[in-house]
Amino acid sequence: MATRASHILIVVGAFVAGLAIFLGVFLYTTGYLGGRVSSSVGGPYELVGDNGKPISNATFKGKPYLIYFGYTHCPDVCPTTLFEISQVMKALGKDADRAAALFITVDPERDTPAVMKDYLANFDPHLVGATGDLKTIEKVEREFRVYAKKAPEKNGDYSMNHSSVIYLMDKQGRFVAPFNLKRKPAESAAVLRKYM
Ligand SMILES: [Cu+2]
């Protein structure tokens, strides 16, 4: 009995150790361990801002900021998300100038700088739009692990199926973690403030 019990203990022990290693590696690579920053998501980018001027990761240096990928023709998810981001920016009050929010299009063929500027006039002015040529946008999508695909419609038009993640970037421009908007704007604002 004693050997059987110890055998079970060893098996359980090995399992727990395996689980701990797995969890450790998982937390490490996803960047959740001790506030570590994940380097596997994101990368430098050079795009065109909604004002027609170049915009890059360097533009936001010194500020924590949010990045959201979407497109202006989006019927529901994008406007909702941009509205929620606007609420967070408002909740920041004066501190909103020490943060930023970037809306990168996944539909650069239709989303020219002018189209984005017009569209973003509906939201908080701290939201900045960015577009670029298709190749550049696709590269940024790959770096941020964004899924985006054209979905043709019957009338010859198309919509974009796309992933909907809000990226929290620290003031060095490194990806920290996905940002949760499903809470009170003041709570989201408090999280953003911690990174200022
Ligand atoms: Cu959308």
Short synopsis of the structure:
The protein is α+β, with helices and mostly antiparallel strands and 196 residues long. Helices cover 37% and strands 21% of the residues. It binds copper (II) ion.
How do the strands of the widest beta sheet line up side by side? 2-1-5-4-3-8-9
Uncertain segments: 25-31
Average pLDDT works out at 88
Order of helices and strands: HEEEHEHEHEEEEH
By DSSP, the count of extended strands is 9
Instruction: Describe the global form.
Output: globular
Strand residue percentage: 15-25%
Bound molecules: copper (II) ion
Radius of gyration: 21 Å
Q: Name the helicity range.
A: 25-40%
Distance between the termini: 60 Å
The structural class is alpha+beta
What is the helix tally? 5
Main sheet properties: 7 strands, mixed
Question: Can you describe this structure?
Answer:
With 196 residues, the protein is α+β, with helices and mostly antiparallel strands. The chain has five helices and nine strands; from the N terminus they run αβββαβαβαββββα. A seven-stranded mixed β-sheet has the order 2-1-5-4-3-8-9, sandwiched between helices. Helix 2 packs across helix 5. Mean pLDDT is 88; it is low at 25-31. Copper (II) ion is lined by residues 70-71, 74, 77-78, 162.
What structural keywords apply?
binds copper (II) ion, 9 strands, two-stranded antiparallel sheet, 5 helices, 196 residues, seven-stranded mixed sheet, single chain, alpha+beta, 21% strand
